[in-house]
Write a structure and sequence with these properties.
Number of helices: 3
Helix content: 40-55%
Strand content: 15-25%
Strand order of the largest sheet: 2-1-3-4
Number of strands: 4
Number of domains: 1
Shape: elongated
Length: about 120
């Protein structure tokens, strides 16, 4: 029985460590992109109300449910970064973009990973 608890605790710790490391890596990747001269598009896929309450500076708002009908607003010739509240809507929007041939897109995850200024 004690061995099972140790395994469960070990797995929980590994999962937590993975989440922390991934968040730090994504933050570093996004801040490096923002500081570079590389053209990019940052898209907040939350609702307009969530966006108005606070978003990463420079982000444009396209609700994840409207991403498929908003492809004309998303340039294919630049890196595209998506984020939402927790990461799930950004992942869904990423799947939509990839199914439409966007190959240079990735998900930052949730805005809670952002440690910089929030624009309102």
């Amino acid at each position: 029985m004690e061995t099972r608890y140790a395994i469960v605790i070990g797995l929980l710790f590994a999962f937590y460590a993975y989440k922390v490391i991934t968040a730090r890596m994504m933050y570093a990747k996004l801040t490096k992109l923002i500081a570079s001269d590389t053209p990019y598009t940052l898209i907040d896929v939350r609702t307009s109300g969530e966006y108005a309450a606070g978003h990463i500076p420079g982000a444009k708002n396209i609700d994840h449910e409207k991403i498929g009908s908003s492809l004309g607003k998303i340039a294919r010739d630049r890196e595209i970064v998506l984020y939402c509240q927790s990461g799930s809507r950004a992942s869904a929007a990423l799947g939509t973009l990839r199914s439409k041939g966007y190959t240079n897109a990735w998900s930052f995850g949730g805005i809670s990973r952002w440690r910089g200024k929030i624009e309102r």
